[in-house]
Amino acid sequence: MAGKESEKAGEIFEAIVKDLASDGRGIVKHPHGRTYFVPGVWLNEKVVVKIKGIKGKTGFAECTEILLASPSRINAKCQHHGVSLGKCGACPWQFIDYTAQLDAKQKRVEKVFSRLNLQDKVKTIAGSSNIFSYRNRAQFKTDGIHIGYVSSQSNTLVPIQHCEVLSDYNKHTLQELIEQLPNKNWQPRGKQPWITLDIDHDVSAQNISVNKRLPFKQANDGQNQYMRNWLANKLSVLDKGCHVLELFCGSGNFTEVISEQNFECIYAADAAGQAIESLFLRELRGVRTMTADLFKESEFAKILNKAKQSEVLVLDPPRDGLKVKGDIFAKKSKLKHIFYISCDLATLSRDIEAFVSHRYKVLEIQPLDQFPHTPHIECLVHLRKKDNH
Ligand SMILES: C[S@@+](CC[C@H](N)C(=O)[O-])C[C@H]1O[C@@H](n2cnc3c(N)ncnc32)[C@H](O)[C@@H]1O
Predict the structure, then answer these.
(1) Closest ligand 1 atom, residue 246 Cα
(2) Which structural domains are found in the chain, ordered by start?
(3) Is residue 91 among the annotated active site residues?
(4) Mutation to probe ligand 1, out of 270, 290, 296, 324 (largest number of atoms < 8 A from CB)
(5) What is the pLDDT of residues 66-94, one digit of tens each?
(6) Which 3 state secondary structure label does DSSP give 179?
(7) Of the residues 78, 163, 343, 379, which is catalytic?
(8) Region 7-15 average pLDDT
(9) Among residues 308, 314, 289, which one has the least CA distance to residue 238?
């Protein structure tokens, strides 16, 4: 039993990596039973680890020796990759070949949905055709002297000269930003040890966004196209004489796909006023835009009421998922088809369980890899309301 014979920081023990946590770290067990999280190790590896700390029933350790290495280990391409202090933690799986990364993601999705007995609905994960140079957006940190990312194990700025996952356009912007160092305008004020610099393909090194998030945009163009095609294919076979409700529409990435299908009316809602404004200005066919905080019961209720004739729901929420569900399962609801695009497995499975318990059937779960070398997983789910007889 964990805790009875207590371990101490600095203690060393041998273990086999039994699983991977949602943040990508390996999971090992101490002989006394306590679970430890260890970065930089892979499934089935035999490792020596050193305890760094304990919090309640879990512990944290670092790998000091690999006794039996995974055959999937490779040399990371990036000079900044690593788990020790001073190394960048943004691509924690770069030391593992891409096939094994995809296999681990597939198994995680299947495991999560096996709890709902839905593992048979999980399709083969769609891998990214570009595993480097894929990121069309990024956020750097700078103290005016260095520019970089934050180390995985601490709150320290890791200066970088190069980032392999950035698109060629963004790599160029990074070089231009480095050339602007040292930069007095980027010195942090107050307690924060750095300021943020947001880049994407709409900005250059001369007009980057300082301390202000750029509007949301899917970060991997190729994989975004896959999601758009998936949705277009699913919608193409539905009857078009009905209304569609789209929640968390942003500036209209999927709204455009829905509009192209010629549905009678599309209600598109998001909290970001700037995103809704730019969607409105696009004048997409049949689209009615609405600004609403969908995590507030009252605002969510108003949107549901406006779009009460909708038979199709498309949603792409942030990590919190469909936190507020309001009257979405009410008897009077006409929603027949749900297309749920998710960036968080935990909240997705919570929400899918709720839909299933309200007579929705899961037809398909399509996992997708938007972020190679990270444990992040995107899922596209199609549900349909069961007939009433
Ligand atoms: C994963 S993004 C999806 C955006 C869009 N579907 C796309 O593909 O570009 C999540 C969206 O949820 C919106 N959002 C976050 N919190 C929200 C809230 N409380 N209420 C409404 N929208 C919210 C964000 O503004 C963002 O546009």
Answers:
(1) 6
(2) 12-68 (2.40.50.140), 137-210 (no CATH), 221-385 (3.40.50.150)
(3) no
(4) 270
(5) 999 999 999 999 999 998 888 998 999 99
(6) helix
(7) 343
(8) 96
(9) 314
